[in-house]
Amino acid sequence: ALLSNMAGRSKLPCAVLLPCAIACGWSEGPPAGAPDAGHEFEPYFDGHSLDGFELVGISASDVRVEGGVLECSCLPNGYLYKNEIFRNFVLRLEFRFERPDDLAPGADATFFGNSGYFVHLAPPHEIWPRCLEVQGSYQETGDVFGLPGLLPANDAPDFAKLEAARRPVGEWNDLEISSQEGALEVA
Prior knowledge:
- By secondary structure, the chain is mainly beta.
- 4% of the residues lie in helices and 34% in strands.
- A hairpin with a 2-residue loop joins β4 and β5.
């Protein structure tokens, strides 16, 4: 489920990105008269279709909606996005990796499933766009870095806490990405 509290729409393109990546962008400020979303959350993904999403580097056969869940093969590299802009937002989502049949109990530290969530995305849409990525890989979920080129961000993650918060492979995890006036927080 993707739920967002996004205010401050503006004139630059934005994205929710998958493969699996999710993203939202922001600019200098909301247009005059833009509604304040307050504390209301609204679905960013409707749970039924990919209507409103654009695909970059992937095709419709690489992603599907099943039982209200957006599923992706994560091959090839790419993402999906909506052409919307948000200045200040909170993006809440749930994600999981399917547990491989050959992953032994207690061996989750050897699993390297990968994903990510792009924020502050700058055009053009290409692989890999200029943005910040909130890491969605199983081992480093929540770490933040710059793309392209995997540039370090100023997030100083505590990997022991990330590991303690992470659920076993195959179980659902919660992630919240918040951007307020350009300051990014991940929980």
